[in-house]
Write a structure and sequence with these properties.
Largest sheet: 8 strands, antiparallel
Radius of gyration: 34 Å
Order of helices and strands: EEEHEEEEEEEEEEEHEH
Number of strands: 15
Mean pLDDT: 78
Low-confidence stretches: 1-13, 31-44
Distance between the termini: 87 Å
Structural class: alpha+beta
Length: 213
């Protein structure tokens, strides 16, 4: 069935809708056969462009998600048997080491945080109950003060690319990452070494330490 119409001031032209399978064509009856062919090609090309654009969007989204996943920083706690800790973190995530002094048998709390570049830790302050070997107390270590039975060293700002601790030497050790508490006595044998470090997923396994005990 032919229809007539106007097109941008040109003379009336006639066109006939046609269907061939799933494809729809418009056969334009005018003097220029080129216009007729161009319109058919444009329709075919438009569908192909839509498919390509959709595939491109899907691929772009997948790459973005994968890139985000492998770049996300984690705190890793590695032993000779594998990973005990693998928790997602970000700059400023608090990490607390709580343990008993091996000689004094009093509690010590070391307050750290993930650094601004998300590739290590910063020791912010330490709180302990009695003076002992290895505990900070000089002006070079930070700002020292006493609160009741606690000695506190603030503003230490000591950068720690990685840490190695042994459960047993540091008795009743707990590592608190954000609001999650890891009780090492329940997770690993005494005297085992635990290697702590911060890294994105793609780099984590390159930073593994060879631990024999």
């Amino acid at each position: 069935m032919e229809k007539s119409g106007w097109r941008r001031g040109r003379k009336p032209l006639s066109f006939t809708p046609c269907v061939c399978g799933k494809d729809h064509f418009i056969i334009i009856k005018e003097r220029s056969g080129f216009c007729r062919i161009a319109m058919i090609r444009k329709n075919k090309g438009g569908r192909l462009e839509n498919v390509i654009a959709s595939v491109g969007i899907v691929i772009t989204v997948c790459i973005a998600i994968f890139g985000y996943y492998i770049r996300t920083p984690y705190l890793y706690g590695q032993t000779s048997d594998g990973f005990l800790i693998r928790q997602e973190v970000e700059a400023g995530t608090p990490v607390t080491l709580a343990y008993r002094h091996s000689v004094q048998k009093t509690m010590i709390y070391e307050y750290l945080a993930v650094n601004e570049t998300e590739d290590g830790l910063i020791l912010k302050s330490t709180k302990y109950q009695s003076m002992g070997v290895g505990l900070p107390f000089s002006k070079e270590d930070g700002e020292f003060r006493q609160e009741g039975e606690w000695f506190i060293m603030d503003k230490m700002n000591r950068r720690c690319p990685e840490l190695s601790i042994r459960n047993g030497v540091t008795n009743d050790e707990h590592i608190i990452v954000g609001d999650k508490d890891y009780a090492l006595a329940e997770l690993m044998p005494l005297e085992k070494e635990l290697h702590l470090y911060v890294a994105p997923l793609w780099k984590a396994y390159w930073m593994k330490k060879e631990i024999r005990s």
